[in-house]
Amino acid sequence: MTGSRKKSVLIIGGGAVGAIAALNLEVGGLTSVTLVLRSNFNAVNEHGFDIKSCDHGRVNSWKPSIVRNSIPDIAKESLPPYDYIVLCTKNIPGIPPTVVDLVTPALPKANSHTTLVLLQNGLHIYTPFLETHPQTLVLSGISMIGSEEISPGQIIQNEGDRLIIGAFPNPNIDSPTSAALEFVSIYQNGGKTDCKLGEDVLHDRWRKLVYNACLNPICAILGLDTGRLRLAADGEVIEKLVRPAMQEIVDAARANGVVLDEDVVQKMIDVDPLQSYLSPSMLADVKKGNLIEYENLLGGPLREGRKAGVKMPTIEMLYYMAKGIQWRTMEARGMVDIPPQNV
Ligand SMILES: NC(=O)C1=CN([C@@H]2O[C@H](COP(=O)(O)OP(=O)(O)OC[C@H]3O[C@@H](n4cnc5c(N)ncnc54)[C@H](OP(=O)(O)O)[C@@H]3O)[C@@H](O)[C@H]2O)C=CC1
Ligand SMILES: CC(C)(CO)C(=O)C(=O)O
Q: Among positive and negative, which fits the CA dihedral 142, 147, 152, 153?
């Protein structure tokens, strides 16, 4: 990296992934992190994060350089543009504010300085920015971390932070790979993480969805972590439900020109050590009564597969079950009205 000034990084969303990203970037020493928090702001502002991490060990009462409870409006606050904005919120289309609304106040007008990094699951999550911020370089961050915020400011990370960074396609940007490489170098500078460049974002995102489109909803629907899912019913749930669902994602990817490794299904079934008893983020969300990312994890690949003529009965069933769960949560949160019960 050229120059000695620390890179300024704004992270929006300091939950399971955002808190570890903030810690990792500050441990690396090449960045100054501003972290935007919401429901956990008071807890973290007063006491800091308590983090139990397989990469960083026990870290108590820790805060990044700046924590705030609102997204900076750089024009109104006369702040210099950030070098990077890293989005670590859940990404739930249709529920305001949109991802574009979130980052817009923190970006310069007609931005070409700030690089946006989407550290979120899903397939085409960059497309809204292509329309609204065509000159903004958007990087893909595919995270294989296993992390959970068990109560405000209390983070348990039990799967290592493995991150693949790549540039989403944008015809308006020259040499996006150098910016991706710079982010890789600042992210891995602390030596605690495995962060590398991914040359083929679409391939890497489809590959990740073999896990997320299947294990996230199945664990969330059944209330089982991935270890217990493998133990359940002597492996029948894996063979009759998980494996066919994963194969449908592999088929949808292939029909969209993305050929995944032949053994990807087995690799994803086995990827979490059984005794990690890992809760995918959708299971954690259902347990907390949070909204779930079913559109990006299931709806996206389902629509792409259908368009290409692939039959995806298992994924379709999971999609509508997840949609039902979302409706249930929305009702519990007063987001939908229902007719009164007859008495
Ligand atoms: N957890 C994991 O192990 C993994 C997660 N991912 C992906 O990473 C992304 C982030 O997930 P994860 O960290 O688990 O999610 P969390 O729910 O743990 O954290 C998201 C955070 O973003 C905050 N947030 C949401 N909207 C705003 C806003 N408008 N302003 C400020 N903060 C906001 C939430 O606050 P509030 O509490 O108020 O809602 C919450 O603290 C998702 O796309 C997920 O799929 C990828 C790999 C692994
Ligand atoms: C599977 C996992 C933990 C990443 O490795 C994830 O992406 C999620 O929980 O949503």
A: negative
What strands, in cross-sheet order, belong to the sheet with 57-62?
57-62, 49-53, 154-159, 146-151
Distance from the CA of 181 to the center of ligand 2, in angstroms? 23
Q: How far is CA 183 from the centre of its chain?
A: 17
> What are 274-310's pLDDT values in tens digits?
999 999 999 999 999 999 999 999 999 999 999 999 9
Torsion angles phi and psi, residue 55, rounded to 5: -90, -40
Could you tell me if the CB of 102 is within 6 A of ligand 1? Answer: yes
ipTM: 0.98
CA distances from 228 to 219, 232, 237, 275, 321 (A): 9, 6, 10, 9, 20
What is the CATH code for 204-332?
A: 1.10.1040.10
Say which CATH superfamily domain 7-199 falls into.
NAD(P)-binding Rossmann-like Domain (3.40.50.720)
121 Cβ below 6 A of ligand 2: yes
pTM higher than 0.80 for the full model?
yes
* Helix, strand, or coil (residue 50): strand
Q: How far is 168 from 176, CA to CA, in rounded Å?
A: 9
Say yes or no to pLDDT of 117 above 70.
yes
